[in-house]
Each structure stands twice: as structure tokens, then as C-alpha cells.
Amino acid sequence: MARRALVTAALSLLLAGASAAGATPAFKAGTFDPPRLAPDFSLPGSDGHELRLDRFRGKVVLLAFGYSSCTEVCPVTLATFAAARRKLGAAAADVQVVYVTVDPQRDVPERLKKFLGSFDKTFIGGTGTEAQLAAVRKEYGVTAKRIPYGDSYTYSHSSFTYLIDRGGRIRALMPYGHSPDDYVNDLTILLGE
Amino acid sequence: MRARSLVLAVVSGSALALLAWSALAPVESASRAQIFEIPHGTWARRMSGDKVDILPDHIRLTLGIRDILVLRNHDAVPQIFGPTLMMPGQSLRLPFEQAAVYTFSCTAHASGQMIISVQPYPGTPWAKIGWRAHELGWRLRLLSAHIWYRYRF
Fold first, then answer.
1. What is the number of alpha carbons within 13 Å of residue B121 lying toward its C-beta?
2. What is the least distance, in Å, from the CA of B70 to any CA of chain A?
3. Closest residue, chain A, to B70 (C-alpha)
4. In terms of C-beta distances under 8 Å and separation of at least 24 residues, what long-range contacts does A21-24 make, across chains too?
5. Which CATH class is domain A2-191?
6. What's the confidence (pLDDT) of residue A175?
7. Interface predicted TM-score (ipTM) over 0.85
8. Residue A173 and residue B95: Cβ atoms within 8 Å?
């Protein structure tokens, strides 16, 4: 509790300093006005527990959709999250990455745990049935299209990341390709609130 | 003969002055935001079979001049823009800092897709001329679309 208060105070000081210097902290991500409550879901989590967003109320959540066999977008996005958390230092304890698969056939909880753990042990993945995951995607407007590839398949999927504040509201949407520093910028704003 | 030469000289001089201004004058914009609004009733009109093209399928932004996309949903139902669902009355302000081509799926558009092309800042004289020519063409297209919409509805 005391550690969290210290982290919040440090972030507030950082933001206050920026404001005093005339630089209003601005999001690098797209921002919603007014923000809406992030639709919750209940999925089998890679940590062995039920994955629900309300588990992380009080933390800032980075919510992304993808699949562990993705060779282009997902590894870059997850490596960026991991780098941003490292840069945040102690404040990263209040940042939770939630990664929901679009490929339930291959992404069972154990596989997700191993895949996400290779980036950061704290990342939690969610899987489920095709119907469950399609319902979650619909709530967030996420697209995922299965594309046959030889004897296997790939997915074309949305590559944005949602930034959800401590109160569980979708505050921002970060397009693919932003740097860890951009995430640190936006997470610092949300953590300081 | 002398009058004709004079007219020719004035026209040529004006064209050269315009070209010089286009190439050298700083490129700037009163607002960095490119605003698009989904009008109330868009969904209902589409559901009734009306072909609705409120949003262009290709949006061009330029870094440092107009590089913030603002989309406002004035419709009575949620609309998808990019990967996200926008509630009635909600707006999305999306800044761009990297020149690239971004593709979004978008139910607010009749084709279901929107491409956002973010161009680098026109730093060279040729790039400034190109940007101004495109801007003029875009504004003329916008004007003709506005006139068409006004007479159509």
C-alpha cells in the first residue's frame, strides 16, 4: 500500500513537473471522449485462473488481441509491452498486460503461458471457445479472419491495443507500431491519475 | 501586338509568382485535426438500402500540418471505426506521428474499409507544390460532394 502511494506520488510529481514546464501531458494513442466502461468477459486464463478484467481494477490494463503463432504483429507488440514495463520500473507493478487469443484451436492456456512468459512472466492470456472469443471481439469491435496457409492457417487480426484505466474505462487505443517510449508516456499519464 | 505581349507577360509573371509562392511559402494549417462526423441516421439509411458514403474511403493526412484524425459518432447506434466500437455521442481523437499507410475496417463506410495515408511533412519546394495541388484537388472534390449531397437530399 505504501509502495503504491510512493509510486503514485512519484508519477504525480513527474506529471506536475511536465505541466509546470508548459508541456501538457498528451496521449500518443487515440483517445475516447467520453470514455466507456470496458466490456468484461470471463475466459480461461493462462495463469490457471478465470480471466476477468475486474480482477485488475485499480491497475492500468493493456488489452491486445492476437495469437501465439503470429510471426509479424504479436511478437513486436508483446516485446514493446515488455520493454515499456521495464522502463517504468517499480510503477510497472500497476500495469497488467492482457492478451486474448483469436486462435483457440492452438492457443490452449499452457501454450499461451509459455508464449507470453517468453516476453514477460506477468502477462496473462485468455482463451476459450470460438463462440466465447467471437463474442469478446464483437464487444470491442476487433476483427480476426482465418486465412488458410498450406496445410495450416494464419490470422489477419486487429493490431491495436486498448489502454484501460484504473477504473476499468477504455481511455485510449494505441495503433500498432508505436515505441515503448510512447507506451511509457501514456501509461505514466494513466498511472498518475 | 504590344497589348498581347503585355497580357502574356502579366499571365506568365503571375504564374511564376504563384509557382514560387507554392514552392517557398511555409505550409501550415489553422488546425491539425481532420474531422469526420457520422451523421445521425446513417445506420437507418443504410438499413433502408440507401448507399451511404459519408466517410471517404481514403483519408490523407500530413505530418506537422494535419495529422490528427477526429471521428465523431452522431448516430443513434454504436459504429465501428478501426477495431473499436464507438458509442453514440462518442468521439475518437487519433494522432499520427509516423508516415505510413494504415488500413481500418469501418462499418460507417459503405465499402467497409478505410485507408489512412499519412504523408511526411512537405519540406522541399517540390513537395510543397505537390501538397498544395493535392489540397486544392481535395477541396474541390469536397465542394462537389457537398453540392451533390445538397441537391440529392
1. 11
2. 9
3. A30
4. none
5. alpha beta
6. 87
7. no
8. no
